[in-house]
Amino acid sequence: MHNPMLYRRLGRSGLQVSLFSLGSWVTFHNQVDASGVREMMAAARDAGINFFDNAEVYANGESERLMGEALAQLKWHRLDYVVSSKFFWGLDAGTAEKPRINGRNTLNRKYLLQAVDGSLKRMGLDFIDLIFCHRPDPHTPIEETVWALHNVIEQGKALYWGTSEWSADEIRAAYEVAERHHLHKPVMEQPQYHLFHRKRVEQEYARLYDDIGLGLTTWSPLASGLLTGKYRQGIPAGSRGAMQNVSFLRDGLLDARKNAAVGELEAIAQQLDCSVAQLALAWVAHNPRVSSVILGASKLSQLQENLGALSVLPKLTPEVLAQMDAISAPLAV
Ligand code: NDP
Hints:
By secondary structure, the protein is an alpha/beta fold. It contains 13 helices and ten strands. Helices cover 40% and strands 14% of the residues. The site of NADPH dihydro-nicotinamide-adenine-dinucleotide phosphate has 31 residues, from strand 10 and helix 11.
């Protein structure tokens, strides 16, 4: 058994989210079927996870449908879980000849209002707890996007809104529009954050945590599996690195210097009596600016192993952190 789940505030909001949460990108529908999703979500909830991350675009809407189906069967109290979705790329984006111009790569008011309704329908929910703008849209005035999200919240269809992979300037601009017009403000960001991807969280956003109370739900804590050590000898069959639909990840997963660094991290993990995946996850969770570390798992056994990171957290002494820094920081962006 591992240490019990911890909970943190989502930035300056009153909402408490589990320090580890469960996401569905790549896995739900593509690798995990309906009964697997239900089983994984039930195990996550048993371990104290209360936040489940999703997006309109994951598996073309199927990920939301599967999560909704599982929630309907699991019948949890609505206060016991927090669900997210994210919007930008759009579903049914049309064809190359006839693109659906107002429904893709946008944060315009029309798309956002229709897209949120679509997500609610697929998930079978009355409201989504957290909605994210999945990427910035330089072609729509930030004021239009902020008003649209404010209206979605006022309609009771979402509770909090935030951004994903926006620049610090864009986040601050959205916050200021909301402040000026007394609208619901962005509460959280969803950035990539792991041992090899650090600068945005640690440097670019540094002022935002205290200035505007920004919370973080961070993604790809294992760099898509690189930080488990499974790519040190090439691409194992059945792994994410072998999947055609995410082939853009392959070069990164096979990066020789990073894989060598993972080998060095493995030596530290051995000393701490844990796996390198648990060590890497504990490292992300150790940063107090992180509200929730979103885990990805294609198998229940991975989720169970990864939750063991809770027991590694107290072992991250300043000496251990300095050793990890020396190995990873020179390779990090
Ligand atoms: P990770 O970096 O942790 O990668 C997860 C994958 O690594 C698993 O699916 C599995 O892949 C492999 N893995 C995990 N644990 C183990 C283990 N113990 N042993 C061996 N292999 C393991 O996270 P994700 O990239 O999945 O991101 C997590 C979540 O973040 C997503 O589900 C999504 O909700 C969110 N996200 C958000 C983004 C955004 O733009 N806002 C972008 C990307 C993700 P396999 O078994 O197939 O090799």
